[in-house]
Design brief:
Elements (H helix, E strand, L loop, with lengths): L15 H8 L8 H11 L18 H4 L6 H6 L3 H12 L5 H11 L14 H8 L4 H13 L5 E3 L10 E5 L2 H14 L2 H4 L5 E2 L11 E5 L10 E12 L5 E12 L7
Parallel strand pairs: 1-4
Antiparallel strand pairs: 2-6, 3-5, 4-5, 5-6
């Protein structure tokens, strides 16, 4: 700590313009292409500035600020060169959220495909996911794994990631939930057969449907944690009751809840 002497003059704070001129006093002299690339390199992608405890706004400078500066920046901001770097930064974050991005990318790959996040191998990973470009791949991971809307099943219990468990669902609200999940995955008819439906099959090109299991007990609301699980097998009985096999894939933090 420091104490100013009596009668000393307090220095006036720098204005934002003065700080900018001092930090980037040569920026205006750069070639336009170089200046544009610098702006794009320092721009953040959606959720890149988010933390484990909040600030999960999907707005970002790469998507909502830089493209508004000029048509050239708008076109350049959509190229793979910058979205590949943005994805690599998410996959190599210095907090635990890198595991969510890695798990989201792994879910888009065919079974038994090993995930590699090395820069020189990421192009092969992109081809395996069948996405057209890195911007589409980034969006797909963000909307299907990092953020998403899922039905909620409420029952306190202990779960471990990667360890499947079975349940018998009979309440009316969960009968509706299972029916909707089966219809969305194209497995409703198969689930009514005696053997049930194996939803891990990729013959129809779809992944197992997802739901949230609120298993920790306590208050159910925004900010609380729950488990994201895959519906990997289902046998549907008369009146809509069902035996299901669920696979925990990730812990999630709930942002919003509503009653349908």
């Amino acid at each position: 700590m420091a104490e100013a002497g009596k009668g000393s003059k307090e220095p006036s704070p720098d204005t934002s313009e003065e700080r900018g001129e001092r930090a980037f006093h040569l920026f205006s002299e750069l070639h336009e292409d170089i200046a544009n690339h610098i702006l794009l390199f320092i721009a953040d992608a959606p959720l890149e500035q988010s933390t484990e405890h909040g600030n999960k706004n999907a707005l970002s400078s790469l998507t909502h600020i830089v493209p508004l500066i000029s048509k050239t920046l708008r076109d350049t901001a959509s190229t793979d060169f910058f979205w590949k770097e943005s994805l690599l930064r998410q996959l190599n974050r210095d907090d635990s959220r890198r595991y969510h991005w890695q798990a989201g990318l792994q879910r888009l790959l065919p079974k038994e495909t090993e995930l590699s996040i090395e820069p020189d191998k990421l192009d092969a990973v992109l081809q395996e996911t069948k996405e057209k470009c890195y911007k589409d791949l980034y969006r797909k991971i963000m909307t299907t794994h990092i953020q998403g809307q899922y039905p909620i099943f409420i029952m306190p219990c202990q779960l471990r990631l990667g360890e499947p468990y079975g349940l018998h669902l009979f309440e009316p609200r969960y009968r509706i939930m299972v029916r909707d999940l089966l219809e969305s995955s194209g497995n409703y008819n198969a689930a009514t057969e005696q053997a049930g439906a194996d939803l891990t099959s990729e013959e129809n090109g779809r992944k197992p449907p997802l739901l949230i299991h609120a298993c920790l007990g306590g208050r159910l609301g925004p900010g609380e944690y729950a488990c994201l699980v895959q519906l990997v097998h289902c046998t549907l009985y008369d009146y809509g009751t069902a035996d299901v096999m669920l696979l925990p894939v990730s812990w999630v933090r709930m942002d919003k809840l509503w009653v349908r």
